[in-house]
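quick one, 181 residues, struct below
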Amino acid sequence: MYLKQTIAPTSEPVSLEEAKAFLRVLDNDSDELINSLIVAVREHVENITNRQLLPATFELYDANIVHKLPKNPIRTIEKIETLGEDGTYSEFDSSSYYLFRELGIGYIGYKTMPSIIEHPEAFKVTFTSGYDMIPEAIKQYMKVKIATLFENREQFVVGVSISEFGNKFIESLIAPYIVRN
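---
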């Protein structure tokens, strides 16, 4: 399975202004650092939850017919294509499949099964995913992680164990959003 993002989000879930307010930073000296922390924490959240926070479009390639989609919540399936013997993709009739969601995970249901050739990228799904409104628990988790990274930029903090930075409550904010493979 190969997943490629074709259209990226145009913003971040936590703005620079929101992060600076949470950090209580008034000047602009740390803007570049804070922006990079926002991106790093967003990528971390997307990786551990297997969710897409902001709307983006993806192409998913697989050797087999795909049923379960990654990067939830799924908004739409743009198209499904199958690879032909000539090496070109043909679009599968959109009336032959549908998107359904179960416990917040997007699945493709098939009224008619497409036929595919034996190839690592024989099946291609183009879909859009991302929240309309990001859950507040995720945003708060991100702000705390951004603040932790900002305040503890050094690899070692004298007199403090790294385990003290862990907090079960903070981690529990994101736990309900993790999609297991």
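The first strand starts at residue 2 and ends at 7.
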